[in-house]
Amino acid sequence: MIFTATFLTLCLKLLLIPAYRSTDFEVHRNWMAITHSLPLKQWYYENTSEWTLDYPPLFAYFEYLLSLIASCFDKKMLIVQNLNYASDETILFQRLSVIFTDLVFAYGTHKCCSSIQKSWRTDVVLPILLITNCGLIMVDHIHFQYNGILYGILLLSLAYAIQGRYLLSGFWFAVLLNMKHIYIYLAPAYFVFFLKNYCLNSKHSKFQIKNFIMLGSTVLAVFLATFLPFHNQLGQVFARLFPFKRGLCHAYWAPNFWALYNTLDKAAFFIMSKMGFLAKKSSVASMTGGLVQEFSHEVLPNVTPLVTMILTGVVMLPALIKLWSLNKHPSNFLRCIVLCALSSFLFGWHVHEKAILMAIIPLSILSIMDLSDAKTFILLGIVGHYSLFPLLFPSSLLVIKVLLLVLYSIYTFHSLSKVYPFAGHNYSFPLLNCTESIYILGFSVVFMYENFLHQFLGLGAKLPYLPLLLTSLYCSLGVIYSWMRFYINFLTRTSVVQTKPNKKVQ
Fold it and tell me: Residue 71 and residue 69: Cα distance in Å, rounded?
């Protein structure tokens, strides 16, 4: 089934080659040009383009390897000064490079499915849920990015963790961190899980110094291998990796807690100014202007990167404590991974809307293990994938993105209702209650307003970003609800599901 799903999605991805592409297309073309044309010592200093290299060194090496093949298609794409260069050969190569590297995601899917107790759930349902994920298709093969290879590496790491092969799991997670540092939000769950299950002797509660050294050495070796060539410019590298001056929110697109916070600030300013308590003109409009920049709140306290870091850590802490108290069944680890991903998405600094996939992908695995997890996956999947719609803003993509979401959601409802046939429906969507079903139906209202009513009412020129704001707010309610529900379920959990991993000796 993995081969069939991969082949069918491959056909779809090939059809999407001429589709709209975002500025990320130029970002990655520029990174290929930098790594191909310049010596290594200049990679993190080059700033001819505004899209400077800001991923960890291992991803830079990945771009360099791509550039070696790209030179066979069109050498002009590898000239740093050729900004916004997009010949037919360049488009073809970059699109094909994403498709080809998706094989890592397919392999990671295979490893995860083979690591869980064999059944039709792992042979059919899970491969399709992962391989045909509509969010990855929208983000990678229309918007343009390389998330497939990254989530493939994550699935490899999770698969080895499920098997109890902790050194391999730690190795691949270290590789992932050196490809894209945003996955550091998952590191606390890895740390607690490895510390308890690999570095402590469960029978005698004795710390295994040998295992700790082996695991630490494995992870450290990956970081040394990737960062050592940049040892004399680490300050510059980390300044690129953590650009805190980009502002709290990514242009309101991420449906998280700060979207609600910013909206409350705007509403409070509007009401107080109308009542005469505030006279100055608001400068907060920049938050919805589609720009990446710093801004100040008008009424509510300003939020700093340190505040978001502390808040995210505090919110994660109960899940980490609970993970420590539970047994070593990998489903507990996966749940903590999801909670770390969702917590960082909701409360992190400058969160990108695409980061919701960091929770949806591992939650896909849990959806075939437990009914409660399946319910959360269905709801969060619809909400999270719909929240990606603003990325594909051209009207020509309207039908494509709707079809991708609807078809994926239909399969999700159908397959999981077969997995849990006795869950009951009660005049609602399968596995969802009436309130959740009404909320899902509300997306049709949001969609109609965003794409038709807003312009019909003549608000396009006066409030051009209102549809984007409404989409973010409505989706944030669903994400927060899913997070709270999933969190409560995890904290109150006392036993594990019956689905067992396929054990392999370390």
Answer: 5
- Quote the CA–CA distance of 402 and 101 in Å, as a whole number: 25
Q: What angle, 0 to 180 degrees and rounded to 10, lies between the N-to-C axes of helices 371-386 and 434-448?
A: 10
Domain boundary assignment for the chain: 1-240, 248-349+351-497
pLDDT in tens, the chain (506 residues): 788 889 999 999 999 999 999 999 999 999 999 999 999 999 999 999 999 999 999 999 999 999 999 999 999 999 999 999 999 999 999 999 999 999 999 999 999 999 998 888 888 999 999 999 999 999 999 999 999 999 999 999 999 999 999 999 999 999 999 999 999 999 999 999 999 999 986 666 688 899 999 999 999 999 999 999 999 999 999 999 987 777 777 655 789 999 899 888 888 887 887 777 765 554 444 454 444 455 677 888 888 889 999 999 999 999 999 999 988 889 999 999 999 999 999 999 989 999 999 999 999 999 999 999 999 999 999 999 999 999 998 999 999 999 999 999 999 999 999 999 887 666 678 899 999 999 999 999 999 999 999 999 998 888 888 898 899 999 999 999 999 999 999 999 875 544 445 554 33
Q: How many helices (H) and strands (E) does the chain have?
A: 21, 2
The pair of three-digit structure tokens given for residue 365, joined into one six-digit string: 């695995």
Q: Which amino acid is at 108?
A: G
Q: What six digits make up the tokens of 293? A: 């920049």
Cα 287 to Cα 295: distance, rounded to the nearest angstrom: 7
Query: Of the candidates 345, 380, 388, which has an alpha carbon nearest to the alpha carbon of residue 364?
Result: 380
- Burial (Cβ within 10 Å: 0-12, 13-18, ≥19) of residue 398: middle
The answer to whether the CB of 465 falls within 8 A of the CB of 477 is no
CA-to-CA distance for 127 and 132, rounded, in angstroms? 8
Task: Return contacts of 65-71, CB within 8 angstroms, 24+ apart.
Answer: 66/32, 66/97, 67/32, 67/33, 67/35, 67/36, 68/36, 69/93, 69/97, 70/32, 70/36, 70/94, 70/97, 71/36
Cα–Cα distance for residue pair 147/135, rounded to 1 Å: 10
CA distance 348 to 326: 27
Q: Please count the other Cβ atoms lying within 10 Å of the Cβ belonging to residue 226.
A: 20
What is the pTM assigned to this prediction? 0.92
